[in-house]
Request: fold
Amino acid sequence: MGIEERKEREKEQRRQQIINAAERVFAAKGFSGATIENIAEEAELSPATLYLYFKNKDELYASLNLKMLKVLVEKIEDVRNRKNLSPAKKIRALENALYDVYEHDPMNVINVLRFQSSEELKNLSPELANQIKDDARKYLRAIAGIFEDGVQIGSFLDRHPVAFADIVWGLFAGLVLWEHTKKGFDPRKDFLRPTLGFAIEIISRGIKKNGRLNIDN
Reply:
């Protein structure tokens, strides 16, 4: 291994060290409560070192956006590409994929959803903002593709597939944030899984041409 290659590998390892520390800090404190100093302490580095890798807290947090979005894209594209499932069954598998992403790291999913709906996205470099937008387009295209497949074989109503993707994603994001809000009143309650399942069932029945969902078709 050459010197330049070793330096590049060490740089990437340090970058990942910072991202992993940031993930823990953001999960514990939220985006607003976390500081570069908190993250540097967690990573056992100086704040100056962090600024060599990330321009500001927004860009560091955006890197967590990308990390979650890549997992999301992989899971949804996997559902879309399953040859052994009908479009109706893929809708139910989509429910599981979305919940799996949430269950893997609930607080970071919540923080990412809040970040993407805020002004902080405007503070990113064009390159980083475009990466996030590209990954968002990928998972929306995959969701839209599942619906489009159902339209093509005559199982689903003939409606715009992107509108369907927007509805599903908006539903998921809204339920995640609402369930988190309700936990503030009673932390023992966690109804996201059954509520998401019920919501997807309603959507599934609504897009079926005859109004009834038969997952065997």
